[in-house]
Amino acid sequence: MSLFGLFSAALIAYLSGSLPTGFLVARAKGVDIRKAGSGNMGATNVFRVLGKGPGIFVLLVDALKGALPVLVLPSLLSRPALGSPDPAWIALVATLCAVLGHNYTCWLGFKGGKGIATSAGAFAALVPGALLATVAVWLLVFAASRYVSLASVCAAGALPVAAALTHRPLPVVALTLVLSLLAIWKHKPNLQRLVAGTEARFVKKPAAPAAPEEVRR
Q1: Beta-carbon count within 10 A of 169 CB
Q2: Are residues 69 and 121 in contact, defined by beta-carbon separation less than 8 angstroms?
């Protein structure tokens, strides 16, 4: 096994994941997202603070940060010049390091988001069947509770179970378990607020009232 090839995968995936999308999008609009809303740099807080467009953009880019290394690096780095490392191990390393890059970005003092969108992108490439089941859990919990955090924690807990039930290799199941536990740990403040009854539900902003001249029409 080529350590150089795996190290290259780890570094590239980490740098991909470390792009602080939410921070940069908010900064372009004159907002420090770390000091607004929940203070998190993920898509949910961007959605709440800046609106639907920026929130969806951050969600998609954060997912791509996880998916692209897993899709591209195994074929790119599995070459004789790099010792022909196993593509499956490159994919595992890329998944882990892309999520770590998002959660602990080197560009912002190793502080980042909670890794849900980036994990979803990486696992969409690594274990698409298990991810579909996990997304179903997220949607059901969110529809019932309107808590993004609770839906994310439940989905994280469901992922390793789904990976095992879809007969993924043991190293893949182990990785899903590790990243699921990390995601749950990153949601510790949310879980504390849920227990205290102070966690904010996701609600649509009310439509702005019509202008007087529009009402008369």
Answers
A1: 12
A2: no
Q: Check residue 83 and give its pLDDT.
A: 67
Find the farthest-apart pair of alpha carbons in the chain and give their distance in angstroms, rounded.
75
**Alpha carbons 5 and 76: distance in angstroms, whole number:** 10
Tokens, residue 134: 């996990």
pLDDT tens-digit profile of 78-95?
Answer: 877 766 778 999 999 999
> How crowded is residue 16: how many other Cβ atoms within 10 Å of its Cβ?
24
Q: Give pTM, 2 decimals.
A: 0.89
Cα distance between residue 41 and residue 202, in whole Å = 16
Q: Which two tokens stand for residue 5?
A: 């090839």
Residue 134's SS3 state is helix
Tallying the residues shown for the chain, one arrives at 217
Position 217 pLDDT exceeds 70: no
Q: Quick one: tokens of 87?
A: 């593509």
Q: In the 3-class helix/strand/coil scheme, how is 77-135 assigned residue by residue?
A: HCCHHHCCCCHHHHHHHHHHHHHHHHHCCHHHCCCCCCCHHHHHHHHHHHCHHHHHHHH
Q: How far apart are alpha carbons 85 and 74 in whole angstroms? A: 9
Q: What is the Cβ-side half-sphere exposure of residue 52, based on CA atoms within 13 angstroms? A: 3
CB 123 within 8 A of CB 109: no
Q: At what angle do helices 21-28 and 52-77 cross, to 10 degrees?
A: 140
Burial class (CB in 10 A: 0-12, 13-18, 19+), 207: exposed
Q: Is the dihedral of CA 85, 86, 90, 92 positive or negative?
A: negative
Residue 165, helix vs strand vs coil = helix
